[in-house]
Each structure stands twice: as C-alpha cells, then as structure tokens.
Specification:
One of its GO terms (molecular function) is kinase activity. The protein is mainly α. The chain has 3 domains: 139 residues, HPT domain (Four Helix Bundle (Hemerythrin (Met), subunit A)), CATH 1.20.120.160; 114 residues; 35 residues, no CATH class. Helix 3 runs antiparallel to helix 4 and helix 4 runs parallel beside helix 6. The radius of gyration is 22 Å and the shape is elongated.
Length: 307
C-alpha cells in the first residue's frame, strides 16, 4: 500500500479510536448510571468492538487484544445485571487505562512498536484476569452460586408486579404534589414492601423511598426519577434471584433524612456514604482517601468536566 495512503488510514483510525475511548471513559466514570441504561451499555460494547476491528485491520495486535478483553467484559454487563462497587469501577478503569496507553504510544513520535505493545499487554493481563473473575463472582451473586429455578421464577413474578406498581406510581408523580397524592404514592410503597417482606435490602429501599416521598420539601421533579430508577433497578436483581443486592443510594437516604444505620444498611470497609453537596463531598473524600488516591480522583473529575 502507498505509504501516504497508509498514513492517512492510520490517522482515520486514531481519530476514530480516540472518540471511542471517550465513549468508554464516560461510561466507566458513570458506571452506576450506565448500568441502568441498556443503550449506554450497547455503546460501550460497540466502542470496544470498533477499536478491536480497526486495530485488527491495521495489524496492531496489542490494541486488538486489549479492546477484545474490554469487549468481552462489556458483553457480560449487557447480559447480566451486576451490582456496581468501587472494586469493579477500579478494575474497569485500569483496563481502560491500558487501551489508552497503547493508543497514546501509537500517536507518539516513534509509534507503537510491537515489543512495547506486547509488554504493555503482558503487564495488564492480571488486571483483566481479575476483572473477569470478579464479574463472574458478581454474576453468581457474590460467589454463592446461581439462584435455584424456583427462586428465580418467584423473583421474576415479583419483578413483574413491581413494574406494574411503578407504572401507577409514575402516573401519580405527574399529578399535583399535595398531601393526598403523596399519601397515595405511600400506599403503593406499602404494597411494594408487602411483596417481599423477607428481603432486607428491598425493605430498606422501599422504606427509604416512602420516607423521601412523604417529605413535602422534596419536589416530584427531584424525587420521582431517583425513586423509579432505584426501585426498577432493584426489581431487575429480584428477577434474576439476587434480591438483596440493591440497598438505597446515598442520595435517596439523604432525601429521606436517614443514615445508613437507620436504614439497616451495613457498609463494607471500601464503601461510604457521600452527601450530594460539593463542600461536604470534598471533605468526606479528603478524610477517606490518601494523597495518591486523591490525585487519581482529581484527574478523573477533570476528564469528566472536559467531556
């Protein structure tokens, strides 16, 4: 192939790959939100797939292999609703950093030499192995194995009933936010709670949602999307036999005026509640993270602002 033409094709690939990496980065920085949007998950999968295909065409095996590893992991997210935690986010971002590093090397003055690419891929192999292993653990409900068929069928039935009640709730949220209307929505929350009295996190979530709805200072514009999204997301886990995977979020707890302890939630050592207010959030992050972690966090926030 004509060297000038090959260089032009290379430029097209780099430009397209950078756009795809921006898509992947944005999706990973907002992974919790991304998990609630099937189209966003599809975009992550397509972005990794496109980078893989372009790299294969141009013979960049290291980029192809790394993009393929991310593609496989995004496929799992598409097919299985898994809970998002700090460990999962960190592993995904480490995988993304590998792909970004390879692309930056390709754009450098010396290009991406085959031996350099192979070394970068070798260094990232433990990360992708751990990521895939952890995803498998999450899919199986924290390593406890798949739910039995009877439990899964019951969960699907409950989830369908939840959807019907959420439709009714959504209609009420479109009406005037007076005391009587809030009471009607509260009645729907009681019905949601009665569906699965033995599911602790479900009970905590519904109770917290009811408290947030009953608070007259919370507008429907604020509380409706949070409540509907979290209850719907939790019902997805119930449908696959993992009922205690989705506790109420920190935002919902704040709207209800509750602490994690009051809601019956136990956080592990890697989790903490952060208020949805910039100064309070910054103070909590400074108290929790060391200097190195804060530096990484700052870079991620700057990237998010620029995107």
């Amino acid at each position: 192939m004509d060297p000038e033409k090959q260089q032009q094709i290379m430029g097209y690939f780099i430009e397209e790959a950078r756009e795809h990496l921006e898509t992947i980065e944005k999706g990973l920085l907002e992974l919790q939100s991304t998990m609630n949007d099937q189209e966003q998950l599809n975009e992550l999968f397509r972005a990794a797939h496109s980078v893989k295909g372009g790299a294969a065409m141009l013979g960049f095996g290291s980029i192809q292999k790394t993009a393929h590893s991310l593609e496989d992991c995004f496929k799992i997210l598409k097919e299985e609703p898994v809970p998002v935690d700090q460990k999962l986010e960190t592993l995904f971002l480490k995988g993304y950093d590998t792909l970004q590093k390879l692309l930056e090397r390709l754009q450098g003055p010396f290009g991406l030499r085959e031996e350099d690419g192979a070394e970068i891929v070798k260094e990232s192999q433990p990360v992708f192995e751990e990521l895939k292993k952890y995803l498998d653990t999450l899919v199986k409900g924290g390593g406890e194995g798949d739910a039995d068929p009877t439990r899964r069928d019951l969960g699907l039935e409950i989830a369908n009933e939840v959807i019907n009640l959420l439709r009714q709730m959504l209609m009420l949220f479109k009406q005037k936010p007076d005391a009587e209307n809030r009471k009607r929505i509260g009645t729907l929350c009681n019905q949601l709670a009665e569906m699965s009295p033995q599911m602790q996190n479900w009970q905590s979530l519904v109770k917290t949602a009811a408290g947030a709805i009953a608070n007259p200072s919370n507008s429907y514009d604020l509380i409706a999307p949070v409540t509907i999204k979290e209850l719907k997301y939790a019902s997805d886990f119930i449908a696959v036999g993992k009922p205690d995977t989705m506790p109420p979020s920190s935002l919902l707890l704040e709207l209800a005026g509750q602490s994690p302890k009051q809601a019956g939630i136990t956080l592990n050592e890697q989790e903490f509640i952060i208020k949805a207010e910039p100064q309070a959030a910054a103070k909590k992050l400074i108290e929790t993270f060391d200097k190195k972690q804060l530096t990484v966090l700052t870079k991620l926030l700057v990237k998010a602002v620029k995107s």
